[in-house]
Specification:
Blueprint (H helix, E strand, L loop, with lengths): L40 E12 L3 E12 L10 E5 L3 E2 L22 H6 L2 E3 L41 E3 L2 E3 L31 E2 L22 E2 L5 E2 L3 E2 L4 E2 L2 E2 L3 E12 L5 E12 L14 E2 L7 E5 L7 E11 L27 E7 L5 E5 L4 E3 L11 E2 L5 H7 L8 E10 L3 H6 L21 E3 L3 E3 L6 E2 L15
């Protein structure tokens, strides 16, 4: 999608949850700007190591690209990450919805895996209708050879991935509709396998944009729908967590460059490039994490509690609790894409998993509570004047009652802990505030951004926590009952 004029405050390019409100009316002023000018927007970039499940080391990437107002700087850009890293993940062909993107199929492109030191995107300046292809000459089985002088055009980010107010995401607008390809962050670890991916949605109590205590599942000012990739949105606030498995890091200088193409009034296309560098001075990793065991309240009110602490080097962490509903967890063999009705109504797990986030800053072990009534809003009309919170994690008794007395188990949920040595929470939280900084701090005291993440542990009703294994995306997708 070539950008003739810049309409980045438009709700059509609502690439940040707080960028638009339900009460917004009319279009923004039309003006011509230079999106790569420092007076218009600012690109930030930092790198670090990622301790993935305590078993592998990957590349962590933190970035922001914001206007002075704090909103996303552009509606379309094409990123390239280069540096002294080696891609060891196996290449895959392009996808179905964005045929140029391989990341959506779980790996890098053939050309990226061959070059081994660049993770790229595909510019939307590729002529419409150009078939996707992976390489020239003889290519491995399953990959598409390029014909008629066409250069390889598949890439990890494809045409859908760009850099926005809180990192790299598939938010690029499409030429045909002007709407983003997706409104859901990338699942991490990118290029990861075996364990269920974490989609970095921030939920209550840590992220509560409207002050209703229910986060984005309150039904106020946002729409919960399904995007082009079949992913549900908005399930929370995008946390800006982006890290790669199957990428071996080395010390040195890394670069993030964005190609930004514009179309003049005369019809000519021009492309400018904006770049930032970051330095990795240490490949040491943060200590491994173990997800805390979350215990539902004994009184059956829908709340829960756990104990957590921060290891040396970790300055803050998220404890993510993702509710999948009764018999709805990825490990459950009966999970076929829909779960039995639970107590949260149409905005609950019947639509999509429900995300809760607790922000941890105390190094010493401390008990934390998940309030019993911060589940999705049961009311579907009335806005802030009609907030009817549902139970946070539905018990068997609550689900059975909501299911007309039919015996129904308690909700399945996944617990995961993510630790950081840089201030990611304030950078993401700023997107929900009245005043959003253009350049929030994204590096730690040592000048890089290291991350550590625990295995995702699934806690089924009455069972002990076990690692959550990867399933086909459709196996954990939910729909609003019709």
């Amino acid at each position: 999608m070539l950008q003739r004029i810049v309409l980045y405050s438009s709700c059509a390019c609502a690439l940040v949850l707080s960028a638009c409100s339900a009460g917004a009316t009319g279009g923004p002023p039309i003006k011509t700007v230079n999106p790569s000018s420092s007076s218009y927007g600012s690109l930030q970039f930092s790198v670090g190591t990622a301790n993935i499940y305590g078993s592998s080391v990957g590349l962590n990437v933190v970035s922001t690209f914001r206007q002075t107002s704090g909103r996303s700087a552009t509606g379309v850009n094409t990123p390239t990450i280069t540096g002294p890293f080696t891609i060891t993940a196996a290449p895959v062909p392009g996808g179905a919805v964005d045929p140029y993107s391989t990341l959506l199929n779980g790996g890098p492109s053939l050309s990226e895996a061959t070059s081994a030191d660049a993770i790229t995107g595909t510019p939307q300046t590729v002529p419409a209708g150009t078939p996707e292809c992976d390489g020239t000459g003889s290519v491995p089985a399953g990959f598409q050879p390029c014909q008629g002088g066409v250069k390889p055009n598949t890439s990890s980010f494809g045409q859908s991935g760009g850099v926005f107010a809180m990192g790299i995401a598939p938010y690029n607008a499409q030429a045909e509709t002007g709407q983003a390809w997706s409104y859901a962050p990338y699942g991490v670890p990118i290029f990861g396998a075996n364990h269920v991916a974490f989609i970095p949605w921030g939920g209550p109590p840590a992220f509560d944009p409207n002050g209703t205590k229910l986060g984005e599942r309150d039904g106020v000012g946002s729409i919960n729908g399904v995007d082009n990739f079949g992913n549900p949105y908005f399930l929370g606030v995008a946390e800006g967590v982006t890290f790669f498995d199957g990428v071996t890091v080395h010390n040195g200088t890394y670069s993030l460059s964005l190609a930004i193409s514009t179309l003049s009034n005369g019809g000519s296309v021009s492309t400018s490039t904006l770049s930032k560098t970051a330095t990795m001075t240490s490949t040491a990793v943060l200590p491994p994490l173990t997800a805390p065991v979350v215990t539902p309240d004994a009184n059956g009110d829908g709340g829960a509690s756990f104990t957590a602490s921060l290891p040396a080097g970790v300055s803050e962490a998220y404890v993510q609790i993702v509710d999948y509903g009764p018999a709805g967890g990825p490990n459950n063999p009966s999970n076929t894409g829909s779960s039995p009705f639970n107590c949260q109504g149409a905005r609950g797990t019947a639509f999509a998993p429900v995300y809760y986030t607790l922000h941890i800053t105390n190094a010493a072990a401390q008990a934390y509570s998940l309030a019993p009534s911060i589940g999705p809003n049961l009311a579907t009309t009335g806005g802030t004047s009609n907030i009817q919170p549902s139970p946070t994690i539905c018990t068997a008794a609550q689900n059975t009652s909501a299911n007309g007395g039919t015996a129904t188990p308690a909700d399945d949920f996944i617990v995961q802990m993510i630790g950081f040595d840089y201030p990611i929470y304030q950078a993401a939280l700023g997107l929900t505030q009245a005043s959003t900084p253009e350049n929030p701090p994204i590096s730690g005291s040592a000048g890089q951004s290291d991350l550590t993440i625990s295995l995702p542990m699934e806690q089924d009703a009455g069972g002990a926590p076990i690692p959550a294994v990867r399933r086909e995306p459709g196996a954990v997708r939910r729909r609003i009952p019709r």
